[in-house]
Amino acid sequence: MPKSHQTWNKKDREQQKQKARKEKEERKKERKENTQKGKSLEDMMAYTDENGVISAFPPDPKKKREIKLEDIEIGVPKFKPVDPKDLIRKGIVSFFNESKGYGFIRSGKPAKCFCSYQQLHRTNKRTKPGKL
Which of 6, 16, 41, 85 has its CA 20 to 30 A from that of 97? Predict the structure, then answer.
């Protein structure tokens, strides 16, 4: 009685699995042989220079800077209170719409500064654009 077609397929699959296992073992042995064991710590060491570039050589000690621990900021910077005098802008009113209650002030620092009616403190009672 001849063997069925299924057994031949089964044998073929088993041979392919064994071949794949042998190849895997050979690759594993090859990797183990090629690993660089026995390297000294100095050979494995990597350094960074003052710009953060990784190199194989130690940085130049002449370029070393001392950094204070207090100068390092991680996260959000510390809150510094704002002087109320810095919040008041002085300049020339370039545009003001009384019905809507907003306008623009031209001063020395920014080109134009937006302001609303509630923010204005008029020192000059003119209706036309002029100095505040």
Answer: 85
